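Q: Here's a chain of 382 amino acids. Please give me its 3D structure as tokens.
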Amino acid sequence: MKKLISLILALAMVLSLAACGGSSSTSDGGDTSVTISDDDLDYTYGEHFYSETPVTYTMYLNDNSAYPYKDAWSEEGGIFWAIEQATNVTLDIQIVDNTDYTDKVSLAVSAGNAPYIIPKIYSETAYVTGGGVVAVSDYVQYMPNYQAFYEEYDMEDDVASLYQEDGKYYRLPGMKETCLQDYTIGIRQDLFEAAGYDVTELEDDWTWDEFVDILVDVKAYMVSEGMIDESDYIWSDKWCGAQSGQGNGGNLLKLIGASYGIYSGWAMSMSSNYGLVFNTDTDAFELGSISENYKEMMTVVQRMVNEGILDPETFTQNDDTAENKFYRGETAPPTPSPTPLWLRTWARTTTACTVFWFPLALPTSSPKMSVWSAASWFPPTR
């Protein structure tokens, strides 16, 4: 019984998709149907779970070259070590290169030899229709902490979006108490303050157009101080070009598009609805890329380029090129990833200031930006 709960808790911690053909020290991957009474659980909401016997479950890890896997994560003091210490559950990590991840998952699920836990799956439909994965909704009654959160934050409507045709869901929802946009915009606070702007005073209701207005003044300050020439751009972004942008504008267009209520950039490849958005006024789905909102979004992007703010090479360059431009002080508002790895790298260049992350206020009727600030380190301008 404890072993089953161990699996469920492991899923709750890291699951995006659970494959039923994997191997484990506790199961042969056979029949997954389980009938257990509440009395058998011996585990209630609020209690810290710890398995009475050690258990091991296999798990894929998507190894992205931008923030590669570190052996230290599984060593003493690392995250996977900490999970084992806290729960007596060991995660047997199988490293898969990011470029082959989707193909690797598909082949493993089809062959019936996938690991028990497969994180970072954006659409599980193909695996569900093929019968290769387990419905996590069949087991949530054995997850009291999950159930308590589900009830407290009224997650029913959110979870309903995960249901497949069989009336079950195969991914656990990402449960955050407020909207959070990751891979967002970091701010060179030293430059903004020198140009006369206190970002904390602007954060409640500024729009993308207002952000461009401010960037125009930041550039004027940088030119006046001899940091750059008038012909230079001050924003040459990562995650948008030939390497990671996926040919559709990558993170930046995803970020701006979210403010306008449409799918764009990365969101087009991450979503399985081909860019369709639901219009509550007409009670119908519409193609976001031919909407007025899309035109307004692209008008803002075009203005960024025309005003000499956004480097058009953003949409064609490799990620390394974008990083090097930042290290040379040529980028005032980069978009860091949600991991702190970039920040730790930048810290070595010594100059300190505050990083501002920009979660977008969603849903919203106007393209506004909101700011969440966090202290960190950024390098000086050149």
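Q: Can you summarize the key feature?
A: The radius of gyration is 23 Å.
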